[in-house]
Design goal:
Radius of gyration: 18 Å
Oligomer: single chain
Number of helices: 6
Distance between the termini: 27 Å
Helix content: 40-55%
Order of helices and strands: HHHEHHEEH
Largest sheet: 3 strands, antiparallel
């Protein structure tokens, strides 16, 4: 799930192994590889930013592999919510607006919609989150969420 300012499609080959789908309104800017190289020549800081961005993306991909391979459903959902908190603007980290559907979240986490709904209900019953609307979750106990995401019970 990409947010504002996100960079998609930086690949080293001529083919793309992935696609993207918008779940809300968006604005985008597209560059050919040649144009991007020209911009990096003109603005060297852009290359440094892209390298940091790529390193961050690699870390997220590694975290996603761990999440899908070793965590329980509850831990997967807690990890997802904790990650969304980390990506939110300061001051907004405990009130998450999730524009994606439960089905989108389930697909992302390798779960079923029913499992995501059950895990959300368990987090709500434990007082870790409050669900204000289908797309709005409030993190009431961020430390407990982080502990669950880490697999510590």
């Amino acid at each position: 799930f990409a947010g504002a300012g996100y960079f998609l499609g930086l690949v080293g080959s001529d083919t793309h192994a992935f696609s993207a789908e918008a779940i809300g309104a968006l604005r985008y800017c597209r560059f050919s590889r040649h144009e991007l190289h020209g911009l990096m020549d003109e603005f060297p800081a852009l290359m440094q930013w892209l390298m940091r961005f790529d390193a961050h993306e690699l870390a997220l991909a590694q975290e996603q592999m761990l999440l899908l391979g070793r965590k329980s459903a509850d831990e997967r959902l807690a990890s997802f919510l904790a990650m969304r908190c980390r990506e939110a603007l300061p001051g907004m980290r405990q009130r998450l607006v999730l524009p994606m559907t439960r089905g989108d979240i389930a697909d992302h986490l390798g779960l079923t919609i029913e499992t995501v709904s059950r895990a959300l209900s368990l987090l709500k019953a434990a007082g870790i989150i409050a669900i204000h609307a289908a797309t709005e979750i409030v993190i009431l106990e961020p430390d407990r969420l982080t502990t669950l995401a880490a697999g510590v019970h």
